[in-house]
Amino acid sequence: MSAPLADLTVVEVSSFVAAPLCGMTLSQLGAEVIRVDPIGGASDINRWPLASSGTSIYWTGLNKGKRSATIDMRSPEGQDLVQRLIVEGDGIVVTNAAGLPWLSFDKLAAQRPDVIHVQLSGRHDGSTAVDYTVNAATGYPLVTGPADHAGPINHVLPAWDVCCGVYAALAIVAAVRRRDQSGVGAQVSIALEDVALATAGNLGLLTEPQVNGGAERQRLGNAIYGQYGQDFTSLDGAAFMVVTLTKRHFRDLVEVSGTGAAVSALAESLGADFADEGQRYRYRDVLSGLFRIWFAEHTADEITAALSATSVLFERYRTFAETAKDERVTGNPLFCRLHQDGLGDYLAPGLPTVFDGKHFAGEPAPTLGGDTADLLSARLGLSAADIARLSDANTIAC
User: Fold this and answer.
1) Rounded-to-integer distance, Cα 398 and Cα 394, Å
2) Which residue of 192, 208, 248, 254 shows the fewest CB atoms closer than 10 Å?
C-alpha cells in the first residue's frame, strides 16, 4: 500500500513531545523525516522512562521511523548544513527551538521563497510554556479529581502536547497542498497555550462562565458532567467505569442491576424523568447508591458477562502493565513487533488511522546521529573527505 506522503521530506529540529510527535506522524504517513539534533543529543535524549540499558524509552517512542543527524548548530558551518538540508530538500521544517535567527522563516525564505516553516511555541507571544504550566492556566486542574479535594490536580497525560503535535502535522499537510496548487510557501506558528484554550473553548468550558453569569464548573470525581457516568467496585475489588449516554443505555443498566422498582419509585418521589440525561446527571449520587449494591454483590467476571449482553458502555480499569498484555494490544493490528537497539523486541504502535483497511506500521527509532554521513553525502553531495573534515572539527558527529 502506497503511503500518502511517500514523496515528502521534512526536517525536524525539536525536543520533548509536540514537535517530535508531529514529525513521527508525518513519518508514519510515509514522509522521510530527518531529525537534526545537537551533538550528544537534545535535552530529551535521556528522558525517562529508561530501559535497563539506559536507553530512553520515551525518545525511541516519539522518534520511530525517522532518520537522525547530529550537527553542531552553534557553529556557522553547522547552521549552514541544516539550512541546506531544508532548502535543498523539500523546503519543509518543523521546530520548537526558539530564538534561532538562522532557522527563522525569513532567513530560509530568502534562500527558498516557497519554504514551509512550522514553529511551535509555548504561548502566542513566543514566550515559553510547557504542557503542565499551560494546563494550570486553563482551569482543568481545578475541576480534576475528587469532589471534596481543595487544591489543583494535574493529569498525567500531556494532552496539549499531543494535540499540538497533531495540529502541526495537519498544518504541514495543508501547507504542502496549498504550495502544490499555488507555489506559495507558508509561515505557520502554533502555540501550545492556544491549542489548550481553543479546546477548552470548543468544549464549552470557557463559554459557560461567559454566558451563564460567571458559573464555574465543579469537581465531579469520576462522574461525567451532564451525563450519567460513575465508577463502581466489584465484590472481588475490581474497579469499573460505567457510562449511559442514551435512554437505552440507562434502561439496560437499570434492568441488569435489578433496580427497576427502586428507580421508578425514586423518579416518582423526586418528580424526575430519568429518560432525560440532565435529570440522570442531577440525581447521579442517589442513582449510584442504588446501582452500587449490585456491583458490590458480583465479581468482576460476572459484571463483565452481564454488562456485555447489554448496550451499557463500560470498561474495567487497568494498569499500563495489564493493558500491555491485553488482547487490545497483543491482538491489535495497530501494533507490530519491533526490534529497537537498547530496548530489544516489543510491540510498538503504528499510525492509529486506518488507510484502505490497514495501519501503516511503526519502524524503529534511529541511532542518534546514525544517518549523519549518509544524509550529508546523499542529500548535499558532500564527499568522504568533506565529511571527515567536518567530523574532525566536531561540526558533525557520525
Assistant:
1) 10
2) 248
List the grid coordinates of 56: 530512553
C-alpha–C-alpha distance, residues 359 and 172, integer Å: 21
- Its CATH class, for the domain covering 9-200+332-397, is alpha beta
Beta strands in 179-224 (DSSP E): 186-191
Domain topology for 228-316: formyl-coa transferase, domain 3 (3.30.1540)
Which of 161, 194, 252, 371 does the annotation list as catalytic?
Answer: 161
For 18-34, how does the pLDDT look when each residue is reduced to its tens digit (9 = 90+)? 999 999 999 999 999 99
Nearest to 194, CA basis, from 166, 169, 163, 170: 163
Q: Is 161 in the active site? A: yes
pLDDT digits (tens, 9 = 90+) for 53-85: 999 999 999 999 999 999 999 999 999 999 999
Write the CA distances from 95 to 126, 189, 253, 395, integer angstroms. Answer: 13, 10, 49, 20
pLDDT in tens, 336-393: 999 999 999 999 999 999 999 999 999 999 999 999 999 999 999 999 999 999 999 9
Q: Which among 254, 277, 253 is positioned nearest to 266, based on CA atoms?
A: 254
* Model pTM score: 0.95
For the chain, the domains span 9-200+332-397, 228-316
Helix or strand or coil: residue 142? helix
On the question of pLDDT at 1 being above 80, the answer is no
CA–CA dist 25, 19 (Å, integer): 10
